[in-house]
Amino acid sequence: MITLYDFELSGNCYKPRLLMSILGLTYETVPVDFYPGREHKSEAFLKLNPFGELPVLVDDGLVLRDSQAILIYLASKYDKTGQWYPLSDPAVLAEIAIWHDFANRITATASAARLGLSMFYDVDIEAAQAGAHQLFRLLDEHLWFGEREGRDWLCAPSHPTTADIACFPYVALSEEAGVPRQDYPAIRRWLDRVKRIPGFTVMSGVFPAGPAIEA
Amino acid sequence: MNRPNPYLNDHWHVVAGNEAVASGQPFRTVLFDVPIIIQRLADGLRVTAALAPEKPLPVLERYGFIWTSLGTPMPLFEIPEYDEADRRNMNAGSLGVAVSAPRAIENFLDMGHFPYVHTDILGAEPHTEVKEYDVEVSAERGEVLATRCRFFQPRAATSSAGGQEVEYVYRVPHPYCSVLYKSCPSDENRRDVIAIFCQPVGEERIVAHMLQSLIDDVSTITDMRRFQQTIFGQDKPILENQYPKKLPLDPRAETPIRADKSAIAYRRWLSQMGVNYGVIPLVPRVADV
Ligand SMILES: N[C@@H](CCC(=O)N[C@@H](CS)C(=O)NCC(=O)O)C(=O)O
Ligand SMILES: [Fe+2]
């Protein structure tokens, strides 16, 4: 049985939940009192993850931290289509690595600003918001040019990959970080495409897609 | 800067969860745009305005939270159930939200959004109807009371086994606090208590402090917190997208469909008490004209 150590309001925890829902995997949830309990800094939890961070996934005795690493593991092991993390395509794997890194930069900016505003983390909120806008500008351009070339997703294939899952949560939650998306139309369209992936699921703060508008 | 009227100022206002303030570490927050510092010292809590560190403010620890006042506070409202021996009392979280306190209270009172915002938990289509209920305002007790509120809920609490018709009572015993009582899935003779205490950081920003006092000897505190945070996390983007962020007290300002019976009573009560902070008053302020 797969076990996810999870906090409902965490976008990083939402990444594995989202992929497991899309892949139709069943798993067990261990709720962790991240806030206000700070249970992820408790002695017991630090034994599981010395970094004191969520999420953590345990499968077959293997203990994994870092949401991107977890996505790679789940897709490589359980995705029968081989599309979410295409092991036989070095160029795509490298592209995915770039966007997994980008996802961590979003965590360091958009997610940090959200934690500062809603859970009073000691962060420079304005700097974090400015950093998020810089990333969103890059992301919007990448997606906008992609649409011109007939590419709907972050990486080259004609289907989504773990890169899209990794970048989705904190972009979708950016309003809570005080980072509005009205200047990023291509991002808004991409968010809607992710929401229409079969098996998509929401978290608190993320809404399902509205009705599709025919072009 | 808009200052709260004396009625509002002479209340206790929540400023932190008990456990957020550790000894030896000053805790900084903001109340009515005034930065304040809370310290846990050997002889108890000390709360001061950051700009007047020598003058202590009144302080009270109650319901798992720390309360203070910039005025002369009248007694804090009672939640007698809180002291029942078998209740599981917990701070379900203190979350910053970009909204006015009265908007957050009004959302807390509104059952109409359950099926759409808390789908498959506190409501589900086609059970969307808000049935007739009773509202009374007691000006001398300083409280709005809504009773006989009923709603079908697929999963009313952590302890629910399935859907049920749930009965609610809502109290608004403080301009910025509300307490609800709902049927308890594990004991039909008692009610679970959930409260929201809004700390007015500014007119358009609050900390929503959430209390749960539940009859449930099975679930863990973590599970019960998670349930409430899941719900509130769904409300948060709705609250933050309210426009205007301040609550209009003019009955003609918003359509009566949104402002239902308890909301109308709440707005009228705020008006009567001259509440002027986090609202758009009926009579425009001189400064706004
Ligand atoms: N690179 C990690 C970052 C994980 C991370 O930052 N997790 C947050 C929760 S969303 C956390 O646990 N932070 C610890 C803390 O902020 O106290 C990942 O993607 O999983
Ligand atoms: Fe709600």
How would you write the strand order of the largest sheet of chain B? 8-14-13-12-11-10-9
Beta-strand fraction estimate of chain B:
35-45%
Indicate the proportion of strand residues of chain A. Answer: 5-15%
Low-confidence stretches of chain A: none
Question: What is the CATH class designation of the largest domain in chain A?
Answer: Mainly Alpha
Query: How would you characterize the largest beta sheet of chain B?
Result: 7 strands, antiparallel
Global mean pLDDT of chain B: 93
Architecture (CATH level 2) name of the largest domain in chain A:
Up-down Bundle
Class by SSE composition of chain A: alpha+beta
Oligomeric form of this entry? heterodimer
State the shape of chain B: globular
How many strand elements of chain A? 4
**Average pLDDT figure of chain A:** 97
Reported by name, the CATH topology of the largest domain in chain B is Naphthalene 1,2-dioxygenase Alpha Subunit, Chain A, domain 1
Domain GST C-terminal (chain A): 89-212
Domain GST N-terminal (chain A): 1-82
Protein name (chain A): Glutathione S-transferase
Organism (chain A): Devosia pacifica
Question: Can you describe this structure?
Answer:
The complex is a heterodimer of chains A (215) and B (289). Chain A has seven helices and four strands. With 215 residues, chain A is an alpha+beta fold. Chain A folds into two domains: 2-78, Glutaredoxin (3-Layer(aba) Sandwich), CATH 3.40.30; 90-195, Glutathione S-transferase Yfyf (Class Pi), Chain A, domain 2, CATH 1.20.1050.10. The model of chain A has no long low-confidence stretch (mean pLDDT 97). Chain B has a seven-stranded antiparallel β-sheet. Chain B has a four-stranded antiparallel β-sheet with strand order 2-3-4-5, with no helix packed on it. The mean pLDDT of chain B is 93. Chain B has two domains: 6-68, N-terminal domain of TfIIb (Single Sheet), CATH 2.20.25; 80-280, Naphthalene 1,2-dioxygenase Alpha Subunit, Chain A, domain 1, CATH 3.90.380. Chain B is an alpha+beta fold and 289 residues long. The chains are: A alpha+beta (215), B alpha+beta (289). The complex binds glutathione and fe (ii) ion. Fe (ii) ion (FE2) is lined by residues 107, 113, 117-118, 235 of chain B. Chain B: Keywords: Oxidoreductase. Chain B: It comes from Devosia pacifica.
